[in-house]
Amino acid sequence: MRSVMRNLGLSALAVAVLAGCAATSTETAVPASSPQAFQVPLAQPPQVSQALTLNQIMANPDWMGVFAKEAYWSDDSQSVLFARQASASPLRSYYQQGINDSRAVELALDKLHAADQQFGVFDRTKSHKAYLYQGNIFVKQLSTGKISQLTRQRSAIDGVRYLNNGDIAYWQGDNVFQIHQDLGLVEQLAEIKMAKAPEGVKEPTSYIAKQQHRLIKYVALQQENAKAKAQYKDELQKSDPTLAASTWYLGDSEVVSELSLSPDGRYILLALTDKNYTGSSEHDIMPNYLGSDGYIDPVPVRARVAEDTPPGQRFVVLDLNQHKQVDITIEGLTGFDEDVLAKVKAENAKAKGETYQSTKAPRKIQLMQDWGWTQSAIQWHESEDKLALMLEATDNKDRWIASVDLAKGKFTTEHRLHDDAWVNYDYNQFGWLPGTDSLYYLSEESGYSQLYVKGLGEKPRALTQGKFVVSDIQLSPDANYIYYKANQTHPGIYNVHRVNLATGKNEQLTQWDGNLDYSLSPDGTQLLLNASRRTQPNELYVQPIGGELKQLTSYTSDAFKNYPWQAPEVVAVPSSHGAGKVYARVYLPQGYDKSRAEKYPAVIFNHGAGYLQNADYGFSGYFREFMFHNLLTQQGYVVMDMDYRGSKGYGRDWRTAIYRNMGHPEVEDLKDGVSWMGTNTNVDTQRVGTYGGSYGGFLTFMSLFTAPDLFQAGAALRPVADWAHYNAPYTSNILNTPDVDPIAYERSSPIEHAQGLTKPLLIMSGVMDDNVFFQDSVRMVQHLIELEKPTFETAIYPVEPHGFRQPSSWLDEYRRIYKLFEQELK
Questions:
Q1: Res. 767: pLDDT tops 70
Q2: Which residues, at least 6 apart from 125, have a Cβ–Cβ distance to it below 8 Å?
Q3: Residue 682 to residue 602: CA distance in whole angstroms
Q4: What gap in Å lies between CA 775 and CA 403, rounded to an integer?
């Protein structure tokens, strides 16, 4: 699930819980050109002088370091700004550090408005930058650094842009304004009301009304006066240049879900949504048993996929010059009326002894809901009245890039990405190449996310090709290059590359041996990296294009750096189920001896989110689990952490292998993992346990229920028990919806397989979990009780949401997991 990844939230006051451990990290650099690094034989794990304890691991993580977050470049490319926040603190502090400075300077509260902002818009000459701070508009003159505040109000402004003539436009609610730079005049360009237009002065229609007007002169006079006033008002609106434009009335059945103004200020694109749709449950709550007033608080919750029916969006263009509304039709989208679920519906109908007859009908469409980007799905050409949208069908089978005929209200399909499973909610960046009529975009059509460019109405041209994943694309300031991140040399090693748009030449710019994120400096000469290795948490680095890498921050505590952490080795487990290689992290026990007579017990950790990569060479977001796995090795366990099918970073087929069949391919991969450990690490395959949270908890359920001889014990944390109760945006991608595809839900939901439980199971959930509801565990527990299963136990955490926050809860949870493994596997 998307929100299962825990925020590292680490921080710096290194309480020396690991003090006295003077050994250095055992991390070994991985050559980027060595994709087969760390295959068997496996390296001997480091020896430790002080054993880890659960109290140390699950303590407030601030002892590890207060790390830089959300780092970005200053406008002059000479410094970096970022935030730091202790994990237990509700507040964050902001810093700025010069690229040649040894330490950062904390920004005072009264200076934050003047700090360079990460998100802003530039005028056409790139001499001025406008941005929002605390809901107000500021403008910075880049050559001098002078900052001017243009608004000071309590009601927050929603967005701002420069117009082609140098004026600033902004929108607030459903109102759009223009600030004329020469006059200082604030003009309301559009007032949009989601209501029916006033009916105006009505003529009498009934017999009685007509008689009243005919016989009573006063009534007739009032009618004529009203008509005269209305006519005068209309004429004044047309003639008086000092008045704001007339109000737009768009009906009372919808709300504006997104608004975008063209660069010349002439057009507004609106995405409208049914006003009755909220995405929240209409009849359910999450009870907070520990409310501040001593009573039970009924907390509203999201809708379940079984009851959520996203309505799609309707698109409208407003021509402000002609005061003309143009509704956009969807017929121009290739496949807009295809019955893409025909085979699924036919299979489900056959299971019920029925026949399904396929028919064509318009599908529900909406702006692309990418889960990771910061850009908009609405992209205007920088100098012409041309508009491109990225759209998706709510059935998750199609993504379109469409150009828009603004005068006629028609879409033209520039690119269609169809997937019989589901279109990825990542890798959807796109935009116009400056000074051209060409679009660049990411697409998984080859099986891997790659970069393409195409002119309007022309065939696309691939700028990258291969069995690797391209992401995080950025245009260079001169528009000569597109920069991107890719795992080209190894699925678990990421570096920054760029492609020359004129020649098509690709080049790798960094030689990192772990994982990273990056941003290009405003002047296009440097890269800012937020990079990590397996035993080294994220720090900031700066690298000039073609130059040497320089570390900028060092917030990892000495206590953490000086402990001899075992770097998990990344291995490729051969699949016996036709999946190729399953990449996994492996931790070996202290004093490991492959030939010793007594075999080792083992544990497999199942990462959350499903679509997440954890078996890479970067520092894991599961930092507590990383330390727990080190503890387990000190207690004699082998530990494996697999990127089972459905995980991120391995291409489209790996991602969609679980379509309509969640929990089955993944368990096959876990079987191969157990077998691999038995062959390569001297593991007793009859003494293996498993655990994981969220999607990992779901896999723990499915493993113990559908493969009861695979593991001897399992711990399911915050687990999904029934996919019909999870949210629509995630679940409908993979399983469609329960009304359309009940077969997929019954096949994939653990509660349907619980009769298979024969081994000890520990179920642990937070009562305040608004992601995977506590009710999931409640229903599972009652079902297991009714099945008369004696081998399960439960633990609840009354104050915890999906990602636990209290160190005491983490400690209690992992004490129970450790106790389970010690009892059942030793």
A1: yes
A2: none
A3: 10
A4: 45
